[in-house]
Amino acid sequence: MELLQYDFIQRALIAGVAISFITPIIGLLLILRRQSLLADTLSHISLAGVALGMFLQVDPTLSTLLFVVGASIIIEYLRTIYNTFSEISVAIMMSAGMAIALVLVSLNSNSGNFQIDQYLFGSILLISPSEVKILVGLSITIVIFYLIFRRTLYVMSYDEATAYTSGLPVRLISIIFSVFTGVAISIMMPIVGALLVSALVVIPSATAIKISDSFGKSIVIGIIINLIGIFAGIFASYEYDTPPGASITLAFIVIFVIVSLATYFVTLRKRKQNNPS
């Protein structure tokens, strides 16, 4: 309990709660839309936004947001062109984002390894009060967006063609969702790092799917898994002086393994009960 006396721990825990309401919604929808790699792609593109900010000597956060929002719209446009092969848009933009980042970093003599490392690996323990407020605001916005367009998101995640023929605003909602995903990734990147932010989005939702039987339950279970994993990672990082992002990711992996083994043995037991011979 004495950990809670420190301001940076309090900010990290509040940020963890905010993230726990963001990533289950985004992660579940990405998985259902077969776009799990989009989070990783946007993290690479975010690095390009950071490098652009350093190159232009402007706030990297602002340049990253603008860069990622634009890239999210382009990805959604490419996805409509290559409708049958939607993963092509992800592959193209991931390569472009990383290439632009490397070129800009090499051209900018003021970039500095420390700044790049900060965005590559991140640290939720170093989050500032302003970043906490931004995360909380983004969390509230995404939850409201989900509650308003829950039916549309549900239908388009399973069958986008059916949603479109039903008169639902699929294109608009899809673009807004891609933009929200990009903004969330760019804001979370300095907290957990570009190398691990996709794990924060995908792993808890993938775990929740294994033990839930509905769309809404998956999100609720995902929130719980996020809270457990993030809090466990933060406390482990403080106790053993390990990188916060890596500690949180390992906590999620441990939970995923435990849930996978538990569901496997439960399924095996049911099969034996149904087939005693």
UniProtKB/TrEMBL annotation:
It holds the Pfam family ABC-3. It comes from Ruoffia tabacinasalis. This is Metal ABC transporter permease. It comes from the Bacteria. InterPro entries: ABC_BtuC-like, ABC_TroCD. The keyword RNA-binding does not apply. Belongs to the ABC-3 integral membrane protein family. Its main location: membrane. It is found in: Cell membrane; Membrane. The chain crosses the membrane at residues 12-32, 62-78, 90-107, 119-149, 161-181, 187-207, 219-238, 244-267.
